[in-house]
Amino acid sequence: MLRDASFSTFLLIDMTDAPLIVILGPTACGKTRLATQLAAQVEGEIISADSRQVYRGMNIGTGKDLDEYMIDGKNIPYHLIDICDAGEAYHVHRFQVDFQAAFNAIQNLHHTPILCGGTGLYIESVLKQYQFTGIPVDETLRQQLETLSDEALLTRFNTTSSAYSSLADTSTRKRLVRAIEIAEHLQTHSFETTSPTPLQYQIFGLDVPVEERRTRITHRLHQRLQNGMIDEVQTLLNQGLTAEQLIYYGLEYKFITEYLTGVLTYDTMVERLNVAIHQFAKRQMTFFRKMERNGLTIHWLDALAPVGQLIAKIKASIRTQGL
Fold first, then answer.
1. How far apart are the C-alpha atoms of 170 and 151, rounded to whole Å?
2. Among 101, 68, 86, which residue's Cα sits nearest to residue 1?
3. Cβ 169 vs Cβ 179: under 8 Å
4. What is the distance between the alpha carbons of residues 179 and 85, in angstroms, rounded to a whole number?
5. Beta partners for 115?
6. Which of 10, 245, 250, 278 is deepest in the core (most CB within 10 A)?
7. What is the fold, at CATH topology level, of the domain defined by 211-278?
8. Closest to 59 (Cα-Cα) out of 261, 284, 233
9. Cβ(202)–Cβ(34) under 8 Å?
10. What is the DSSP string of 250-280?
């Protein structure tokens, strides 16, 4: 897999002859099942767009569901899953570089690339071909920003105008800090950009009624707890990851680490984690709507419909668009 050797400008590649199918949606909507079933019918390969599935050893908590990649005895090829160790830095610019390598490999085999995941920022970064992600990290600035409240950070970002301002995602504290870092860098440094290369793609989103989504999330959480998710987090701690490193990954890893270190009781952990995952799903949908406002067309599909029916709709839509 190609690795980013430096924080260089995002290298654009010619994707005009390789249509890309994108499947997105909130957590627990059935994205992986749809993507793998589709891949089995169209000689496809999956490129994961999940910011945590890149990490080895983080399986249950990130919902890799690798058993879904076996269809009728055939392994569905996948990319950008289990490509780095837990605790290693991974970010959107590195995802862009890795996506390019995976996309090229699939294209060279004349297979169908299917980008599937719920990390909207990662998906948008390759479809809109973000070019400011290569701006380097400023640890000194980050230390200064850590002392500020979320409100103060947002005020600072809003008063730091740059070419990145309209593109920035400020939905979480971590992303807000990064947005400030990029904006302030652009005020004092030049940054060469290149014209985007046309990319043929079609985006399909799985839409789940809110109540059904809530039911699925809660059910899946209890399933994962029964299937060893706490042991998974304990193993990562035993391997030398610090509590702070795991808490950084949020959701399951944050709350289970706090339980294992005695900060939370089991019942409190489950309750808070359940609420946090529901809030996360809502933020995902908010970002997808933002993608639409930014000019990306998402063809929404009923996640409750049979998979075969969804695949037929995707195929028909692709044929209509001539992809």
1. 11
2. 101
3. yes
4. 26
5. 22, 47
6. 10
7. Helix Hairpins (1.10.287)
8. 233
9. no
10. -HHHHHHHHHHTTSS-HHHHHHHHHHHHHHH
